[in-house]
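Quick review question:
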């Protein structure tokens, strides 16, 4: 089951010629999800070939660089004759303002748009063997982050052991792997725990949106495969980060290390750094041993299962 991330926008509040405001596209099998929609998001989706078949849009907060793309995106969907409903999830207390964006210019979409409010600990969406969880963040407005967390997978089936126990090749293999005991012709009962290993963890992606470093980011998922964290500033902007409720690359790395994350993507970079991100990466690496990178707009990443051979 492929799990792929496309970084649509990686800029801070002010876009640059190279970086669009915030937007993150996630595809898991046939599900397509969007996290935040800064201005121009629909063009980024065209540019990077994601298409517009998203079923859910998860908004972290209502600053313009995270939501100004919603009216244009909805209009583009309508021009493409969309009929399927779209669900928008937004922090508690912000539904009315999102509805105003949806109906901007007194032009309601030609397809159903459902807006729901979410808070810390809520699960706004449950998909096929995964869920999207909301968690508390620390910004200067009502805000949440989101974590996509897959269910544990079945343990490995030990075919060699099953054959040693006399289980014939065929449907009984599947029944055992599904957790059902089987009876052999001689009356012997073989239990699943004799031939199936321990459950294996699924994958997880944590996206903070704009925030100071928070403990809730550490707690929302167990050792996330990918942490996408606010890193608006390098060390030279430490005071400014605290004042504006953002994070530095070093602060993001400390959270990644405490969370046991495998990869750390630094996003929402201030325009003051233009095309120079070396300091972000080097400072983050001082506190985090996993892979650190600053994605460009259009960067695609497939998130592998925890065990490399899978």
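Suggested answer, residue by residue:
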């Amino acid at each position: 089951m492929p799990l792929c991330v496309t970084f649509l926008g990686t800029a801070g509040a002010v876009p640059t010629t190279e970086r669009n405001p915030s937007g993150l596209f996630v595809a898991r099998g046939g599900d397509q999800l969007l996290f935040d929609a800064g201005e121009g998001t629909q063009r980024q989706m065209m540019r990077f070939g994601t298409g517009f078949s998203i079923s859910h849009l998860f908004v972290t907060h209502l600053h313009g660089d995270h939501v100004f793309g919603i009216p244009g995106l909805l209009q583009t969907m309508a021009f493409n004759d969309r009929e399927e409903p779209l669900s928008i999830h937004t922090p508690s207390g912000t539904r009315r303002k999102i509805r105003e964006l949806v109906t901007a210019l007194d032009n309601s979409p030609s397809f159903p748009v459902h807006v729901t409010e979410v808070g810390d600990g809520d699960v706004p969406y449950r998909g096929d063997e995964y869920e999207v969880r909301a968690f508390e963040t620390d910004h200067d407005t009502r805000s949440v982050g989101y974590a996509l967390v897959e269910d544990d997978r079945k343990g490995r089936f030990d075919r060699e052991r099953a054959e040693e126990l006399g289980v014939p090749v065929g449907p009984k293999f599947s029944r055992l792997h599904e957790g059902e005991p089987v009876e052999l012709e001689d009356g012997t009962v073989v239990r699943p725990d004799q031939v199936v290993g321990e459950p294996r963890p699924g994958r997880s992606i944590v996206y903070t949106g704009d925030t100071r470093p928070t403990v809730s980011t550490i707690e929302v998922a167990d050792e996330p495969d990918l942490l996408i964290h606010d890193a608006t500033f390098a060390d030279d902007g430490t005071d400014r980060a605290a004042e504006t409720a953002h994070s530095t690359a070093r602060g993001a790395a400390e959270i990644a290390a405490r969370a046991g994350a495998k990869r750390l993507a630094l996003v929402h970079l201030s325009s003051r750094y233009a095309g120079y991100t070396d300091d972000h990466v080097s400072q983050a690496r001082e506190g985090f041993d996993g892979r650190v990178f600053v994605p460009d707009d259009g960067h695609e990443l497939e998130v592998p299962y925890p065990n490399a051979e899978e």
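Why it works: The first strand starts at residue 3 and ends at 9. The longest helix spans residues 249-259.
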